[in-house]
Write a structure and sequence with these properties.
Layout (H helix, E strand, L loop, with lengths): L3 H22 L4 E5 L7 E2 L2 E5 L2 E2 L12 E2 L1 H7 L11 E7 L5 H11 L12 E5 L15 H15 L4 E7 L5 H11 L4 E4 L1 E4 L16 E5 L10 E2 L7 E11 L5 E5 L6 E7 L12 E4 L2 E4 L5 E6 L4 E6 L1 H14 L7 H6 L4 E2 L28 E2 L1 H6 L8 E5 L4 E2 L5 E6 L5 E6 L2 E6 L4 E4 L6 E10 L5 E10 L45 H11 L7
Helix pairs in contact: 2-4, 3-4, 4-6
């Protein structure tokens, strides 16, 4: 007979076998945890977790409803992936990200998007000063995942766009400054997936007024109760709210409702702009203006080594870069909030859902404008049809077509009435924009070869006309053997040049004045904000 000890072991083993199916059936607890936590400025991204572990998107059995692919996003918003060549979309993020380029490559390869690398010039990664060789150090606070989300959503919304990543040392006022850097480096549109409680921002808000550059900002991830989030409340930006995908129909449509945590608010600092609809029920600047998918429960898939690979994420951090890319590819990278409100037909109205408790449109979605989703989600086909007409006539008066230029030079043009802004582009990349005449631009020093110089004038709806010339920059003469060239004390070396030096210049306002955007103001802002902690 078996011993009593053996009988007890047999009973215990049988119990384990009986319990095993029950344990296997226990569903994991799924949560959607915010990234970039802490006081002050934070990103608006959330990552899906099962029992505290990251949910890896596109895993067998997961179902893509939890992590939309680029193809699904393109169907939802009528995106034509062949649009957008030559456009540059910038994203503003914090801290270093050692695997950024490799992770972007993994995402784009998985979904058959064209490669986008530093070597080809499609991807550019710089610090807040525009330097690509002295990038911030890595800091594991969720910002790496946020950056991956940003660049992957730009890739999904505009596979042919170039991507400029501006990384700041920490989530401070440099996030504002980085917008000026991105504009100076030729960004056509800029996405900011971050913010903090509004407070003392109005006097420094001009940094977000970049002529001819559309600036998009996430509205926030804590619903209406969180209050106004800056810079989403800036009158210079397009505030992007969030939706939840209620039903995903693979053909060409999907049904979206307001995400319950999408940010919306009535500013305490900024006056109601002229473009704001009366439905906003707010005596000051109201947010949001438009929206896109944000609920992490029906969010997007990204690739991020710090997150463990393909992960399911969301938040209005997904919506802002996605909308920025969709707008850029549609021909409206320079879109302003006023443009959006002139063309409600280009946005699919979101009429269900709420993000808080109130008795107004500030937190309840419905027909027309509402706080969580603004005018609705973008329809790129409709957007691309706006601005198909001819803009104001342009003529380049200097330099002469085919002339030789040995250094930085000026470009002068005449433009007929009706231009909202006029841009200088060299070899297809935006260099500088002016809001009014006289239209005299400072071009950067160029490398040897033939370069295409374009001056383009745009109406408020992006009706466009342009003029084009070529200039030739000769090869520099070979150094004279045996002769040592010693510059005198008044000459300028390659560093700290006092002449018309290289690099791209960004302007704002009238005339050809080169604007190093807001440098003096931002220095004051840094000193001012260093003394205070901004609560979320």
């Amino acid at each position: 007979m078996p011993s009593a000890r053996l009988l007890r072991l047999a009973v215990f083993a049988a119990g384990l076998v009986a319990l095993a199916p029950v344990a296997a059936l226990a569903a994991p607890v799924r949560t959607y945890e915010p990234l970039c936590s802490g006081p002050g400025r934070r990103c608006f991204a959330r990552i899906a977790k099962d029992d505290g572990r990251n949910v890896h998107a596109f895993a067998p059995g997961l179902g893509n409803i939890s992590a939309h692919t680029p193809a699904q996003l393109q169907r939802m918003y009528h995106v034509d992936p062949t649009r957008g060549a030559g456009m540059t979309v910038a994203v503003i993020d914090a801290y270093g990200y050692a695997t950024l380029e490799a992770d972007l490559g993994m995402y784009r390869a998985k979904f058959d998007l064209p490669p986008c690398t530093v070597a080809t010039g499609c991807l550019r990664i710089v610090n807040v000063d525009g330097d690509s060789t002295n990038l911030p150090t890595n800091h594991d606070d969720g910002w790496n995942v946020e950056t991956a989300l940003d660049i992957d959503m730009v890739s999904a919304g505009c596979p042919l766009c170039k991507i400029l990543v501006v990384l700041v040392n920490e989530p401070s006022d440099d996030l504002d400054t980085a917008n000026a850097t991105a504009a100076r480096l030729g960004a056509d549109a800029i996405s900011n997936s971050w913010g903090s409680h509004e407070g003392g921002d109005a006097s420094f808000d001009s940094i977000f007024d970049q002529t001819g550059v559309g600036i998009f900002v996430s509205s926030g991830d804590n619903g209406f109760a969180a209050g106004p989030q800056y810079p989403a409340t800036s009158p210079h930006v397009i505030a992007v709210g969030g939706t939840r995908v209620v039903d995903n129909i693979p053909a060409h449509t999907s049904l979206e409702g307001a995400w319950s945590l999408a940010g919306s608010s009535c500013s305490t600092e900024f006056s109601a702009p002229a473009f704001q609809p009366v439905e906003a029920a707010c005596p000051r600047r109201a947010a949001s203006d438009v929206a896109a998918v944000a609920d992490p429960a029906t969010g997007v898939g990204i690739y991020s080594t710090p997150a463990g690979g393909y992960s399911a994420v969301g938040g209005t951090s997904a919506a802002s870069p996605l909308v920025a890319a969709i707008m850029a590819a549609s021909g409206h990278a320079d879109a302003s909030p006023a443009f959006v409100y002139r063309h409600p037909e280009a946005f699919s109205d979101v009429t269900s859902g709420a993000n808080g408790t109130c008795n107004t449109t500030l937190c309840n979605a419905g027909s027309g404008w509402d706080g969580p989703t603004g005018l609705g989600t973008p329809n790129q086909d409709v957007l691309a049809s706006i601005g198909a007409g001819a803009g104001p006539a342009v003529a380049i008066t200097a330099p002469a077509d085919g002339s030789t230029q040995t250094a930085a030079f000026s470009v002068a043009a005449t433009v007929a009435d009706g231009a909202a802004h006029v841009d200088l582009r060299i070899d297809g990349l935006r260099v500088v924009g002016l809001a009014s005449g006289p239209y005299t631009f400072s071009a950067p020093a160029l490398g040897p070869g033939t370069h295409v110089v374009t001056v383009a004038a745009y109406t408020a709806d992006h009706d466009t006309a342009s003029a084009q010339i070529t200039v030739v920059v000769p090869q520099p003469p070979a150094p004279d053997a045996g002769v040592i060239d010693v510059p005198d004390g008044g000459a300028s070396g390659s560093n700290g040049s006092t002449g018309g030096g290289g690099g791209c210049a960004t302007t704002g306002g009238s005339g050809g004045v080169i604007l190093v955007a807001g440098v003096a103001v931002l220095a004051l802002r840094r000193r001012r904000r260093a003394a205070r902690i901004r609560l979320p």
